[in-house]
Amino acid sequence: MTEERSAKIIANWIFIGVAMLIVQVLLGGITRLTGSGLSITEWKPIVGALPPLTETQWQKAFEQYQQIAQYKYINHQFVLTDFKFIFFWEWFHRLWARLISVVFLIPFIYFIVKKYFKQWMIMPLVILFLLGAAQGAIGWIMVKSGLNDENLYVNHIRLAIHFVSAMVLICYALIFGLKLIVSKNDFVVDAPLKKFTVVIIAVIVIQLFYGSFMAGLKGAIAAPTWPDINGMIVPKPFFSSNISNDLFFNIINIHFIHRTLAYIIFILILTWWCKAIKHKTNSFNKTKYWPLVFVSLQIVLGIFALLNSPKIVLGHFGLFEWLAQLHQLVGMLLLLSLISNFYLLQSKK
């Protein structure tokens, strides 16, 4: 087999992994929106692949859930059937993570046996494996923050770390896949534009944290108005004597920061696009439009999700939840589109 063909096979394998990781993040979003994330109170990486199989096992799992604050103060009316519904989403979320591991491991062994890998590929693959393992550990640390008699949900800062670390894993995998299939003729030499892309990516990462804060704090309903924030343009007072609380816990301030960053990102990407449009190489000519498309769609979805948040019905996956899921998906695609363009841009020949 030629080196080019083996590289293409490996790239397809990596891109399948990227797609599965995106699905995994979306499953995490469904788990959060259905209030299912704390339904499994144990972390059993191997035997946990199987759900409870007997009525006794189901009752034990339900009793464990009944010990935490979320059941006592929110879901105390649950019967076993209700519990099975939320259990399914958390179990499926974890099962999909295990499936990703299998899809990584089996081809990895096969490619080693067939000697598809070049020496330079080994370290990136090891890093991918370690990032994936770390993501599982971070997820459990996040879940543990809600398994007590005080917190109704997982800690929103840990949720943000879990989400952003997942995006680091996905972006790293994407860049590795692009290295395998992008030819030298597809690169664009523009050092200033590459640096500008880095700036935009950095701002988007901050925005991902604040989007996660909004999600973790169930923040949409706190200010379901636009363009104002409950009648205010800037929350008053924006800063108090406790700056940490103002930036990371005050939900109205988080609304303001999240919305302001969205406008800033749109302006930055529009400016980036005006600079990028002059380049006409094949791959870049296809990818340079996507950031502007995604950021525009992302803002529209965010506004409609916000305005529909008063229609939330506990235990019902309705219009707000669909909009929130699409908002998260497009946010991921926006970041990945910029990562792809970052890769195609070169500082020098």
Instruction: Summarize the helix and strand pattern as letters.
Output: HHHHHHEHHHHHHE
What is the general shape?
flat
Average pLDDT taken over every residue: 92
Oligomer description: single chain
Largest sheet data: 2 strands, parallel
Low-confidence stretches: none
Number of helices: 12
Helix content: 55-70%
Kindly report how far apart the N and C termini lie. 30 Å
Overall strand count: 2
Radius of gyration: 22 Å
Task: Report on the architecture of this protein.
The structure is a single chain. This protein is mainly alpha-helical and 349 residues long. The chain folds into 2 domains: 181 residues, no CATH class; 164 residues, no CATH class. Helices cover 69% and strands 1% of the residues. It has 12 helices and 2 strands, in the order H-H-H-H-H-H-E-H-H-H-H-H-H-E. It has a two-stranded parallel ribbon with strand order 1-2. Helix 1 packs antiparallel against helix 6.
How would you concisely characterize the structure shown here?
With 349 residues, the protein is an all-alpha fold.
Secondary structure elements and pairings:
Layout: H1 3-33, H2 55-65, H3 69-73, H4 80-113, H5 119-144, H6 156-181, E1 188-189, H7 191-216, H8 243-248, H9 251-276, H10 282-287, H11 290-307, H12 319-344, E2 345-346
Primary descriptors:
two-stranded parallel sheet; 2 strands; mainly alpha; 349 residues; 1% strand; 2 domains; 69% helix
